[in-house]
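Hello,

Our lab assistant flagged a job as stuck in the queue for most of the afternoon. It eventually completed. Since we weren't sure the result was trustworthy after the delay, we are filing this so someone can double-check. Below is the sequence as submitted and the structure that was eventually returned. Let us know if re-running is recommended.
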Amino acid sequence: MNPQLFSRRNQQGQGLIELVLLIAIVATITAGILTVTGSATEEAFVKVCAGLGNENCQATDQQVIATGTPPLTAVPTPTLVEADPTRKPFATATPTPTAVPTINQSPSLTVITVDDVSGAPVRGVWVQLLTASGKYVADRTTGADGSVLFALSQPGNYRVLAYSGQWWEAAQVGVSGPTQVVIRLKTLTIKAVDDVTNAPRSGLWVQIKTAGGNYVADRTTDARGQITFSVVNGEYDVLAYTGQWWQAARVEMSGSKEITLRLKTLSIKAVDDATNAPRSVWVQIKTASGNYVADRTTDANGQITFSVVNGEYDVLAYTGQWWQAARVGMSSSKEITLRLKTLTVQVVNETTNAPVSGAWIQLITASRNYVADRTTGANGQVVFSVVNGSYIVLTYSNGQWTDAARLDVNASTQVIVRVRPPR
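-- returned structure --
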């Protein structure tokens, strides 16, 4: 070893020992200060201070306090430690990387159908998917949440179509991964009201067709006279059924709309042709082409009403068969009066001409359809209310019906039937 290096280290070691001894002495003195009092202690403490090289020591009556600036304490020089070339560092294990989960990015298209006004999902919409070139891919019907999912084999551009009577193109969309498109269906609200009173008309059967004549849907108006249809953009015909489908309106749908169907009121009043008294009669409405619309029986006031759309109608009254009582063109609300003819049958004794009571009389049409039957009163009469037409009067005797008279009725009239009295 180098002598000079050895001498320097030896000197450093001695300095360190002296420093340790000095700290021990100071600690001992400090402990003594806490307990020592009196003059003897003062003298000893002064000596210690002098021994430490502090000439400013003073003693008090109770305790010794060192005053002045204390000497600086030598800071030890840190010892250098040479590296051990034979020592190997700790081996650190290389961490295994954590696998990142793979997100499925396969192409798919979710189509959501919602109401254009409320944003509510629309269930039951038939949706079809085509490629950009028009090749069929798939079709589905939207569920309760208004959505339908198409899983695709490859990305690309696609056409989305919705069905409302025919396939309407609703959107074009490029798909490279999971994609979503929203189709906002237009709401066509139809309100049916009376043309005169504006009262809502419930129970009207309404149908929607495309302008090309393809069926879309049909519904019946509710208690408020309303129905709604969800459709895509396009042109539609609105039809109302009154015996046949009448075109009530044509509407272009580029946004949600409301239209009003003003139904015409056909009021029919049945009265006696001679007295104008109200008559109860069964009345039927048909279209001019013979399609049934509705039938009702007149009330105590002899009245009934029908709600119809514009068109031409036949009014029929039943007296054994349906007789055409009137033909009316409806472009506005109207009232017509059916003047029922009074057919009075007087039954008399063929010998005495006295009225015969209790005789059973039946009226039938010329085509032998039953109209009504009555029994004569004390005056020997029965009365029938009929519309214009040809009729046959029959009497009942000996257990069978016998033709008694044939007549054409176009005004109120009376016929006398002579019967042979029973023997």
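-- support follow-up --
The delay was a queue issue, not a problem with the job. The result is valid. The longest strand covers residues 178-194. Residues 234 and 253 are 5 Å apart (CA to CA).
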